[in-house]
Design brief:
By secondary structure, the chain is α/β, with parallel strands linked by helices. It has a single domain, classed as P-loop containing nucleotide triphosphate hydrolases (Rossmann fold), CATH 3.40.50.300. It has 9 helices and 9 strands. The strands form 2 sheets. The chain has a 6-stranded mixed beta sheet, sandwiched between helices. The longest helix is centred in the C-terminal third of the chain and has 16 residues.
Length: 236
C-alpha cells in the first residue's frame, strides 16, 4: 500500500484553481522530486499534504500506518525566520512537538531524539549557539535536524538548497541522499532539474504538462523534454 496517495486533487484559493485532477502516489523508500514552472503549485501541494490547506476537491490519503503528524517538513525560509533569536537546541527540540500528545513538556525520549539528530547533521557543537548567528548552510542543517525529530517515515523538503553556495549545496544533497539510503522516504521540491534527475526515483512535474512516473521515463516525456531543454540546457 502506498505511503501517500493524492487522488483527483484540486488545489487553489477561492475561485482560483492552481492544480486540478492531480493523481499520484508515493511508496516507502521513494525519492520523489517535484519540479515545474514558478507558480505551478509545488508549495501549495506540500501544504495540502501537511494538512495546512484544504483541497477544493479530491483527497490526500495516508497508508502504511503513516499519520499526518509523523511527517517531517523543511520549508523555504523567509528573511524573518533566518533572524530567529533562539538557540540551535531550542529549534531542534521543537521538532518533537508533534510527539508530545497531551504531555505539556518534553521528556527524556524527546531530548534524546533531538540530540541524535543534531549529531546526524553534524551540529552538536553548535547546540548553544544562536540560530541567527549561523551560516545559511548551518541553518539548513539545523532545520533538517528539526524536521527529522518529527519524521518517522516521510520527509518533505521545499527547495532545501535555495540560496546556498555550490559547495554547501553539494553537502546538503549528500545529507539528504544519506537519509534516503537509511530508509527515509523523501519528497523534495527542486528548481534544479539536473540534480533532481540524478537523485530521484520518481518525478512529479507540475505546470502546463503534468507528468508522474519513474525518473528515467521523465526524460522521454513531453513535459520532461521541454523542461529539460528550458532549464537544463539539454537538447530535446
Amino acid at each position: 500500500m502506498p505511503l501517500l496517495s493524492c487522488r483527483d486533487l484540486r488545489l487553489g484559493y477561492e475561485n482560483h484553481v492552481i492544480l486540478d485532477n492531480l493523481t499520484f502516489h508515493v511508496c516507502a523508500g521513494d525519492y520523489l522530486c517535484v519540479v515545474g514552472e514558478n507558480g505551478s503549485g509545488k508549495t501549495t501541494l506540500m501544504r495540502a499534504i501537511l494538512g495546512l490547506q484544504r483541497p477544493l476537491g479530491g483527497a490526500v490519503v495516508f497508508g502504511d500506518g503513516l499519520m499526518p503528524n509523523e511527517i517531517g517538513y523543511l520549508p523555504q525560509q523567509t528573511a524573518i525566520q533566518r533572524d530567529f533569536p533562539a538557540t540551535v537546541w531550542e529549534i531542534v527540540l521543537s521538532g518533537c512537538q508533534s510527539r508530545l500528545g497531551r504531555r505539556p513538556f518534553y521528556g527524556a525520549a524527546h531530548r534524546s531524539l533531538a540530540e541524535e539528530n543534531l549529531r546526524r547533521m553534524g551540529m552538536e557543537e553548535y547546540r548553544k549557539r544562536c540560530y541567527r548567528e549561523l551560516s545559511g548552510g548551518q541553518q539548513q542543517r539545523v532545520l533538517l535536524a528539526r524536521a527529522l525529530c518529527a519524521a518517522k517515515k516521510l520527509l518533505l523538503l521545499d527547495e532545501p538548497v535555495s540560496g546556498l553556495d555550490p559547495h554547501v549545496t553539494g553537502e546538503m544533497y549528500a545529507l539528504i541522499d544519506r537519509l534516503h539510503r537509511e530508509g527515509m522516504t523523501v519528497i523534495m521540491i527542486s528548481h534544479d532539474i539536473m540534480e533532481a534527475m540524478k537523485r530521484a526515483t520518481h518525478i512529479l512535474h507540475l505546470g502546463r504538462d503534468v507528468f508522474f512516473g519513474p525518473a528515467n521515463e521523465y526524460r522521454r516525456s513531453a513535459a520532461g523534454r521541454r523542461f529539460l531543454t528550458l532549464e537544463g540546457g539539454e537538447e530535446a
